Amino acid sequence: MKRLVMSAVMVAGLAVGTALAQDAAPAAAPAAAPAAEGVVAADGAQAPAKPKDNTGFLAVVVGSGAVGILLWAALFGCGAAAIYFTVDSAVLIRPQKIMPQTLINKVKGAMAEGDVMKALHACESEPGPMANILSAGFAHVEEGFEVIQEAITAAADLEIERIMQRLTWVSVCSNLSPMLGLLGTVQGMIMCFSALATGAPDVGALALAISQALWTTAGGLAIAIPAITCYYSLRNNANRLILRMEAMTMELIKDLRNVEVVSE
Predict the structure, then answer these.
(1) Sign of CA dihedral 255, 256, 257, 258
(2) Per-residue pLDDT of the chain (264 residues; tens, 9 = 90+)
(3) Which run of H or E residues covers position 155?
(4) Which residues contact residue 204 at a Cβ distance below 8 angstroms, ignoring those fewer than 6 apart?
(5) CA–CA distance from 162 to each of 38, 93, 101, 128, 140 (Å)?
(6) Considering only CA atoms, which of 226, 232, 246 is closest in space to residue 177?
(7) What is the per-residue DSSP string for 35-92?
(8) Around Cβ 121, how many Cβ atoms within 10 Å?
(9) Were 82 and a residue from 89, 123, 173, 174 both cysteine, which residue would form a disulfide, CB within 3.0 to 4.6 Å?
């Protein structure tokens, strides 16, 4: 009886072991396949070459030819000019630059004393748009109030034009950059159709031409959008300051009707 039980146990153990071995064999086969492939690769088999990326920015700039390089140089120059004129206009169009409070206080004090020459010296000591306008009026104080108003109006027009001329360059950059981007788009389309005209076009050449068209368009818009936003913001600020300056100027010269010149 014991022998029969031992025999049954041994048979069952052999059956379980055989089943486990059969289950492990298929699982080991997929793991062995990559190893075999690795061996083949290690033996010198050449892997497929990775396709070269011709759509990157540097590849587009270099592959666009001499005209494309000049076009990108113009775009970068336009962006640099837009930044420069924006910063320059932002520094210029401020109350401290156009109508400083110290100048207003000095002129008010001089006009309260009735000393036009003192007010004129105060304007000369702090040159600026408002000081130039007031100086033009004080220089004609002996010729009557109407002449003073005409001189101030002419000087104000000149100063406003100077401010707007510097600000207009930001608008020029914002308008020029999309045109340069459009020119790059046209050049990219020309390159694309030139490649198609060969009969058996190179896919890489087509991709490079299309990338040139899209990159230049994106570059022009990337310059134009911030530039035109800054231009309108600065222009509105300049208009507000100019109106304040004109009102303050008329307030300061209204007493010139009865002021006498103090000779030194």
Answers:
(1) positive
(2) 334 334 443 434 444 444 434 444 444 444 433 433 444 444 455 545 555 555 566 766 776 678 788 888 999 999 999 999 999 999 988 888 888 888 888 888 888 877 788 888 888 888 888 888 888 888 877 777 788 888 888 888 888 888 888 889 999 999 999 999 998 888 888 888 877 777 776 777 777 778 888 888 899 999 999 999 999 999 999 989 888 888 888 888 777 765 554 444
(3) helix 145-196
(4) 52, 54
(5) 74, 11, 21, 11, 23
(6) 226
(7) HHHHHHHHTTPPPPPPPP---SHHHHHHHTHHHHHHHHHHHHHHHHHHHHHHHHHHHH
(8) 15
(9) 173
Tokens standing for residue 223: 């310059």
Query: 10 is written with which tokens?
Result: 């041994």
Cβ neighbours of 198 (radius 10 Å): 9
* Contact of 253 with 137, CB cutoff 8 Å: yes
**Residue where the block lists tokens 């990219």:** 188
